[in-house]
From TrEMBL:
Keyword hit for Disulfide bond: no
Name the UniProt record assigns to this protein: Saccharopine dehydrogenase family protein
Organism: Flavobacterium chungangensis
Saccharopine dehydrogenase-like C-terminal domain residues: 126-437
Residues in Saccharopine dehydrogenase NADP binding domain copies: 4-120
Keyword vocabulary terms for this entry: Oxidoreductase
Entries under PANTHER family matching the protein: ALPHA-AMINOADIPIC SEMIALDEHYDE SYNTHASE, MITOCHONDRIAL, SACCHAROPINE DEHYDROGENASE
């Protein structure tokens, strides 16, 4: 039996573990599912004969090294900053490594040693990053193989609530880490290229500069810009492209509503609010409003945000129970962002019967034989339930499939890498289709941004 060590049994690991267990007899696999919580590891392995749950504190180097030494391959589903010690142990014990996280500078620094030891350190093999890379490179490589020149590449992805579970005014619920949602877009201006010109959007304006998207059968969406759309320009071989933009998908109206929190300062994570533990929700929002001897918190909020009496934005705030004087924050030494996360989690947690949804949308503009053309590629995935969510499926399945391909010698290029080579993306995308992760590609009229072209 080949021992697959999975470190981290959180929400994103459920589909990964189920897939590998389903293949365990024919592929001669034994899974060791390691987590700080033994009960969580047991819940995910469900007494399967080809799986062993393990309580593992990754900060205990002896325990960690022992587990890695006994593995044939290691999958780390830990937060990104915790991968590096796992990776160093994999080098020491000559083990391949698979993660769904962005390649950090520390991980990239291990590239030469990984190549020297003929080890594959596959990263960014989840959803975003992951499926986005693979589905994009497939089409880009096809365009290039025909002699086409890329002019435009836009890529959008969003974790949303499925239509049948979409029952609040924000058309949104938390389907992944709430903190990441609250802090989205912070840390510098969003930057991208539009018709050959560099563009920048400061955080204060990010949620008022959106692009609209239509997905057949699912309606209209909007997308706001990711912080750095240019990160993969060279990786994708798009150094000369005229338009390059990456964005996050939400339902129409979400960004305008979220901008209210940004303008008030409620997403700030840089300072602590005094007395936050005993603060009510009403006191929290009042903290960001000017003093007035007679105006209520509601009136002050309307005035500062310029909300008219018939504006749906007001109903969205009311739905969150933001003005409740009796609800307590109950978080000591909390930042505004932490308190906002707590308030939103009260309203936006998925109910037991709720399902989530992943939407991915790529636009490829190119020139072939003097003619401008465009391909739009769209993927929608609906979750099964609270355990096997669309997020868990689209993050976990590519990790699992890549792991088997590496074990079986189908992926052979060594080094620290992301899945942009044909030997990686072709078999993974093909197998993902069997699990309902299907991209529908359409030829559409090319639409650039320069009106002088028409």
């Amino acid at each position: 039996m080949r021992n697959v060590l999975i470190i981290g049994a959180g929400r994103s690991a459920s589909s990964l573990i189920r897939y590998l267990l389903s293949k365990s007899n024919e592929e001669k696999l034994h899974l060791t599912v390691a987590d700080l919580s033994l009960n969580l590891a047991k819940a995910k392995t469900q007494n399967h004969p080809n799986a062993t749950p393990l309580s593992l504190d990754i900060f205990n180097s002896d325990e960690r090294k022992k587990a890695i030494a006994n593995a044939s391959i290691v999958i780390s589903m830990l937060p990104a900053h915790l991968h590096i010690e796992i990776a160093k142990d994999c080098l020491e014990f000559k083990k391949h490594l698979v993660t769904a996280s962005y390649i950090s500078d520390a991980m990239q620094a291990l590239n030469e040693e990984a190549i020297k030891n003929n080890l594959i350190f596959m990263n960014e093999i989840g959803l975003d990053p992951g499926i986005d890379h693979m589905s994009a490179m497939k089409v880009i490589d096809e365009i290039r193989s025909k002699g086409g020149k890329m002019l435009l590449f836009e890529s959008f992805c969003g974790g949303l609530v499925a239509p049948e579970s979409d029952n609040n005014l924000w058309n949104y619920k938390f389907t992944w880490a709430p903190r990441n949602v609250v802090l989205a877009g912070q840390g510098g201006a969003a930057k991208f290229i539009q018709e050959g010109t560099y563009k920048y959007i400061p955080y204060s304006a990010l949620f008022r500069r959106t692009e609209f998207l239509e997905v057949e059968g699912y309606g209209k969406f909007e997308a706001y810009s990711n912080r750095d759309s240019l990160k993969y320009r060279s990786v994708y071989g798009l150094d000369d492209i005229l338009t390059l933009y990456r964005g996050t998908i939400r339902r129409v109206g979400y960004s305008r509503a979220w901008n209210m929190f940004v303008q008030l300062g409620m997403t700030d994570d840089s300072y602590i609010l005094e007395g936050s533990e005993n603060m009510s929700y009403r006191q929290f929002i009042n903290s960001f409003l000017p003093y007035h001897p007679t105006d209520s918190v509601e009136i002050k909020t309307r005035l500062i945000l310029k909300i008219d009496q018939d504006d749906i934005m007001w109903d969205k705030l009311l739905e969150l129970d933001l003005f409740n004087p009796d609800k307590k924050v109950n978080l000591p030494n909390a930042t505004p962002a932490q308190i906002l996360e707590k308030i939103l989690t009260d309203s936006w947690a998925l109910e037991p019967e709720d399902k989530d949804m992943i939407v991915m949308y790529h636009k490829f503009g190119y020139e072939l034989n003097g003619e401008k053309k465009q391909i739009d590629s769209k993927m929608v995935c609906i979750g099964e339930d609270q355990t096997y969510t669309a997020m868990a499926k689209t993050v976990g399945l590519p990790v699992a499939i890549a792991t088997l391909l590496i074990l079986n010698g189908k992926i052979t290029t060594p080094g620290v890498q992301l899945p942009i080579k044909k030997e990686v993306y072709e078999p993974i995308l093909k197998e993902l289709e069997e699990y309902g992760v299907i991209f529908n590609e359409q030829n559409v009229p090319y639409f650039g941004y320069n009106p002088d072209l028409f």
